[in-house]
What we know:
Elements: E1 5-9, H1 13-24, E2 28-32, E3 44-47, E4 50-53, H2 62-71, H3 76-79, E5 82-84, E6 89-92, E7 98-101, H4 105-115, H5 119-142, H6 149-152, H7 155-163, H8 170-173, H9 182-186, H10 207-215, E8 218-220, H11 225-237, E9 241-243, E10 248-254, E11 257-263, E12 268-270, E13 273-276, H12 280-287, H13 292-298, E14 305-313, E15 323-326, H14 331-339, E16 350-353, E17 368-376, H15 387-404, E18 414-420, H16 422-429, E19 462-464, H17 475-493
Helix pairs in contact: 1-11, 1-17, 2-17, 5-10
This protein binds flavin-adenine dinucleotide.
Amino acid sequence: MSKKSVVIVGAGIAGMATAITLAKNGFDVTVYEKNSQSGGRCGQINRDGHRFDIGATILLMPSIYRSVFETLGLNFDECFELKDLSTIYKLYFGNGEQLIFSKDDAVMKPQLEAMEPGSFIRYKAYIRTGYSFFRDSYKNLLARNFYHLFEFTTLANVMMLIRLKTYLKHATFIRRFFKNKNLPQAFTFQNIYVGQSPLKAPALFSMLPATEMTEGALFPIGGMHQIALKLEEVAKEAGVKFDFNKVAEKIETNGRLAKTLIFSDGTAIKSDLIVVNADLPYAYRNLLPDTKISQRLDRKTYSCSAIVFHWGLSKAYSKFEHHSIFLSKEYRGSLDAIFEHQSLSENPSFYIHAPVHTDPTAAPSGEDSVSVIVPIGHLNEKNPQDWEALKNLARTEVLNRLVMEGFTDLEDHIKFEICYTPVAWKSIFNVSRGSVFGSIGHNIMQMGYFRPHNRHNHYRNLYFVGGSTHPGNGVPLVLLSAKLTSERILKENS
Length: 494
Ligand SMILES: Cc1cc2nc3c(=O)[nH]c(=O)nc-3n(C[C@H](O)[C@H](O)[C@H](O)COP(=O)(O)OP(=O)(O)OC[C@H]3O[C@@H](n4cnc5c(N)ncnc54)[C@H](O)[C@@H]3O)c2cc1C
């Protein structure tokens, strides 16, 4: 019997992990990718000896990587040279205070007690609770498929959603643990990793800082893109074919089946199954025949976007930790600017990735490679922004803040700059609204069964995988998405 054919649109992390499972289970798999390299938002830029991860830089929740790699027949820890970062990151508050995040209680205790006497014991309780949310939600919400509404709305699941405090705001929950002004920010800003406001996210998301402080943060030597390269290598070994610089333009359908993938160069390919790893709302809007579903997706809440500067520096800045977070002194106002006005405030919060001190191969000797991520509102047709002006504002504000924090001559040492704005995220990766941390947001009404499904309701052989379907965005979750979509394909097509 001939093998069933599968075409996958997109060589992102989720697309490639799906390709491996399907190829290993006897499918004939081809991946079509619009860009020239694999990895999508986990891609890489190399210029003049400087190396930058395009998007993902923090390897969190290593337990999920380990578990999904195992299902691919791989030992995660043997695939990479992994560094366990003793300082997870350094947090700079706008008032001159700083906090080193570490799994080590001996590092955390004196710092927390100095900021708020008695806070260490409450910090431990907060992390314990957050990690219990992670374990519970992993088992009952994130790492399983929901095929029918009644599987999601069982009494057991309702009890779980109550247990996970989805009814309570994270910003309210954190006040039970800390009175100091800065500590609640320190343990809720992580919501921005999944593109949502720390002021509005449910308490469930205390699982983000809790997994950091429990499992730590790893760094693969060579950068996060190594994960994409490994998946590409393993996929090829399993027989997956890759076609780069190939843009899918339409999916032709017939009755209840997706039949043919049409490319921008006029070529076409028929396939038994189609898996879309490209952003899901983009696929409904641009690749499929127009339906009400696309309009419904437009009405969903989308994650925020980011302006990213990659700087090749002629000087090494050993003062940078591997990861640094600079929180705005007008924290609440800066969040409102992003999430209420889809814009950017003066004095924004931002994050810096400076991998050179962990991994000297990231820059020429004596120099530095630094990426700055500034969260910002997403593209919104009803509220258009002057992105060039916002980019200039972000650059000026970041440089001013760095001078204030003691990086006085950094601007003089910028040899070159590469910048990604929301417009670039949309045009390079087809991410709807440039909402790179989703694109669909992660409020509780957009999670589990309520998140766009990983199979099309009408076209029974059309599947989705990646950040906008279940369970959500971020490399660990899109790996889980690949596991869940693959499981479903095998269940429905074997
Ligand atoms: C600035 C930034 C920082 C981030 N930081 C982190 C982090 O620290 N840790 C973390 O875990 N995650 C982080 N993320 C999120 C993480 O990068 C993503 O969740 C993950 O890479 C998404 O993978 P994916 O496979 O779902 O989608 P993608 O990476 O978007 O892959 C989809 C692929 O489809 C291709 N494609 C699109 N349209 C077409 C078409 N028509 N034809 C052919 N191909 C097409 C795209 O080019 C792309 O390669 C960050 C993201 C960004 C942007």
